[in-house]
Amino acid sequence: MAALGTLGMQYDDVPASPVICIQDAYKSYGSHQALAGVNLSVYPGTIFALLGPSGCGKTTLVNAIVGRSDLDAGSIFTSLKDLKEIGFMPQDISLFTRLSVRENMRFYGYLHNLDADEIERRSKYLSDLLALPPFSRCPLNLSGGQQRRVSLAVALLHDPKVLILDEPTVGLDPILSKNFWDRLREMANQGKTVVLTTHYIEEARQADRIGLMRNGKMLTQDTPLALLKEHNTDYLEDVFLALCYQENNKTSRKISKEETSFSKVRTFEKPKRISLSRIKAQLLKNFYVLKNNLVLTIFGLMLPFVLNICAKIAFAHDPYYLPLAIVNEEFPGSVENCPRTFTNSCILSNPEMMASCIFLNELKNRTYVMVNDFQYDLALIYISAYTIFQSEVMNSSTCK
Ligand SMILES: Nc1ncnc2c1ncn2[C@@H]1O[C@H](COP(=O)(O)OP(=O)(O)OP(=O)(O)O)[C@@H](O)[C@H]1O
Description:
- Residues 20-240 form the ABC transporter domain.
- Keywords: ATP-binding, Membrane, Nucleotide-binding, Transmembrane, Transmembrane helix.
- This is ABC transporter domain-containing protein.
- The protein has helices spanning 2-7, 58-65, 101-111, 116-130, 144-156, 174-189, 224-230, 236-249, 257-260, 276-292, 294-314, 344-349, 351-364, 376-396, and strands spanning 20-29, 32-42, 47-51, 73-78, 86-89, 162-166, 193-198, 209-214, 217-222, 264-266, 322-325, 368-371.
- The relative contact order is 0.12.
- By secondary structure, it is of the alpha/beta class.
- Strand 6 (162-166), helix 6 (174-189) and strand 7 form a beta-alpha-beta unit.
- The protein has 14 helices and 12 strands.
- The protein is 43% helix and 18% strand.
- The radius of gyration is 38 Å and the shape is elongated.
- The protein has a 6-stranded mixed beta sheet, sandwiched between helices.
- Residues 29, 32, 34, 52, 54-60, 91, 199 line the site of adenosine-5'-triphosphate.
């Protein structure tokens, strides 16, 4: 906890050895205060359960720990050097549902800079440890419990020192939930530190320490036994109820953002957004996505060709039978009078006439219907009549 020394002042009485220590954490979303001065200490090799009803701020707190969001104020200290020492399992299972379990493992393995052999070795170990479903299956077709176990395996893949799990047991049946806790206990016994959130009060009994949260505040944090003893009951629900009543009787004032902006400290930086391992993992994932959707991939590749051919068929043809009259005051007489070839002397003697003739000769070679020798106003009348007549003819015949 080197960073504590550098801060000095109000943090002198913080215990010396927590892996994670949060001091006076505040976070607001608009006018809603999600965290209102939370303090938390998590010790190595223990399971810490953050317990509280829906909306009390548990996810906000764990998101702040793993760097997914920033606190408005407060300090987060860890003894970890790097965020990579944390394995995080978010509430919304972060698996690619159309990639197989193996492909998911590889993606996250590469993201954590593991090589292919290491990913294979760790995957096998975790498969045995967590009784994972076959690696060829896609999360889309797995049960909620299986998905959660795969998600936990992904969080454990790089062998992190600290595990942070957001609602890991939601939707699990009691047996799966029990297995889950057994695995967590084994890991804690091996020295890993676990922070998890839950709103199942009795489940939290299995943790080493419990933090009871309500309305963005930490009501208390202690071992389950100490809490039960202190409130003279056998049920954590009674403890929570008693603490909620106590909280209700306190007059609490909403604290403004300005009042809480005294300190904002993190002891590790967020990881770089662009890194070689990220690029490698993203490329691999995109390759898997394309491979697993062959129809879509072929369609995507063929689409430009198909569009090109359609455009070629539909657009940019010479118009057929389009009546065209030109009022040309530079060149008297019919286009038939135009010379076919021009000599230099001709250009010099009458350049306008030559330009007109070149233009008119060029038009004659096209598919227009040239309308000759008309006065301008008569030409317009003729064109209108001709267009009507032509559309009638075109409708009644199959012309090219
Ligand atoms: N991005 C957001 N924008 C606005 N309000 C938010 C946002 N995230 C959370 N909140 C609000 O902050 C409060 C705490 O939310 P949080 O998700 O931390 O609760 P929780 O205890 O994890 O709930 P749950 O157990 O249902 O996941 C809630 O009232 C929620 O509506």
